Amino acid sequence: MTLEQVMNDLKLNSNASRKKSLLKAGASENTYGVLLGYLRAYAKKIGTHHDLAFKLMHTLNTDAMLLAVMLFDVSKLSAKEAYDVLGIITFDQVLDDFMFRVVTLIEEVDVLYDMLKDSDSDMLKRALWAINVERVRLKIIDDNEVLYLLDNIQRNLVDETPKAQWMMNRCFAQIGITYEAYRTKVLNLSEELGVYKDMKVAPGCTSAYVPNWIHAVIK
């Protein structure tokens, strides 16, 4: 299947309501608004297609990029290639999908982590913290690393740039969820910092305020 064929199919399956929702969330105008159900079925039809995934990413079309995430061969993606792709992503939903479905699974994820550490880019810092989220979720870091993350969060969360702040906060909550020994410390510190404390959410939803997030998961 060619890039042109895929782009034509995506355009033909645009959905005005989905497009409106994506634009409201921060997607660029280069968006068709294809429903996720269609994208998933289409990805299953295509199968793993590493080369096509790169081509779709470089269209910078939101729907094509979301589809691309589903086509990458994790075993073939290098840290350098992942870093280059991250550099062209401007929409956090695409970045998060790419990070959690692909990048955190690559063999060179630690190499990529080192490449991201000194970045001042809001999106690349978000990518770095996504790796931290996954490390915490899998409980593969030791006490010293947990304390290092908590110290970093305490010093930087309040004034962090918006995209990175969201993922740093997610890591903060994940520490409290995964590491019971640090839960009280996380709850106390999150109350002190107060990030997202006044966040308004729809009925039945949980805010990003860490105490609310942890209590919603740990019942």
TrEMBL record:
InterPro entries: ARM-type_fold, DNA_alkylation. Pfam families: DNA_alkylation. It comes from the Bacteria. SUPFAM superfamilies: ARM repeat (SSF48371). This is DNA alkylation repair protein.
